[in-house]
Design a protein that fits this description.
Number of helices: 7
Structural class: mainly alpha
Strand content: under 5%
Helix content: over 70%
Largest sheet: none
Number of strands: 0
Oligomer: single chain
Length: 255
């Protein structure tokens, strides 16, 4: 599972409006680069925008416009489009069929459990009625333990019904979990841009705090790790490091 941000990361103490302005100027270009990179490394995530590093740099410095996120940087060969679209369609259909099969099977099991529960409850109640009738007959004859037998029969029936209900609840719970897991597998993807942006934004902006020519080394990483942890973003340095480094590297190309 992808670790999700639970809070919006606060800005470091050195943050100014200059950093905000600079990030707002380039984040559209970096978002396109981020989507393209995901698409390059995953069949289930990102968008094929036909965007390369040179395009990203040009867009960030203003020498090329930043297209809307749903518009490719340059047209794709129609043959490639058809091939990719067909693969995507087949993949989506396959995953959808899997989810439908798992869901249908689970609902079938749930229906059977409800039927079994109904039958069990019916049987228990029939047995209880029989015991109560026998006890009533003995009670009419003055049998001294008749009332006790009725009480015990009712308690036993109540316990059996409760056990059957608990078992049905447990089984249906498992099937609902299967349905949820199937849907999650179909929908699972990489972290959204809104999550990754906080880390890339920090990495990009922190680059301006160091003189030109600074390199990413153990000393620098130790400083950034300490500051990132102090910000209490809800994301560990280990998880966030890759996107922070992406922002740093991007700034090194454009600042």
């Amino acid at each position: 599972m992808v670790e999700r941000l639970h809070t919006i990361a606060p800005d470091p103490v050195w943050w100014t409006e200059k950093h905000t302005s600079a990030w707002n100027h380039v984040k559209g270009a970096l978002e396109r680069d981020w989507e393209q990179t995901k698409a390059d490394f995953s069949k289930k995530s990102g968008q094929k925008l036909n965007q390369n590093v040179a395009d990203t740099v040009k867009q960030s410095v203003g020498s090329a416009p930043i297209p809307p996120l749903d518009v490719k940087t340059r047209p794709t060969d129609p043959k490639i489009v058809v091939k990719v679209a067909e693969k995507a369609r087949v993949s989506l259909e396959r995953e959808s069929v899997k989810v439908a099969e798992i869901t249908s099977k689970a609902h079938g099991v749930i229906a059977k459990e409800h039927q079994k529960l109904g039958e069990k409850v019916g049987t228990v109640r029939d047995d209880l009625a029989t015991e109560e009738r026998k006890a009533a007959e003995k009670l009419a004859d003055g049998h001294p333990v008749a009332i006790e037998k009725i009480t015990n029969a009712r308690a036993k029936a109540s316990g059996q019904i409760e056990a059957a209900q608990d078992n049905a609840l447990e089984q249906t719970g498992k099937e609902h979990a299967k349905i949820a897991a199937a849907g999650a597998k179909r929908d699972e993807a990489f972290a959204t841009w809104q999550e990754a942006e906080q880390e890339a934004r920090y990495g990009y902006s922190v680059r301006s705090q160091y003189p030109a020519g600074s390199v990413w080394d153990h000393k620098l990483e130790g400083m950034l790790r300490s500051e990132w942890d102090a910000l209490e973003t809800g994301r560990s340095w280990k998880v966030s490091r890759a996107e922070i480094r992406r922002g740093w590297d991007f700034a090194d190309k454009t600042v």
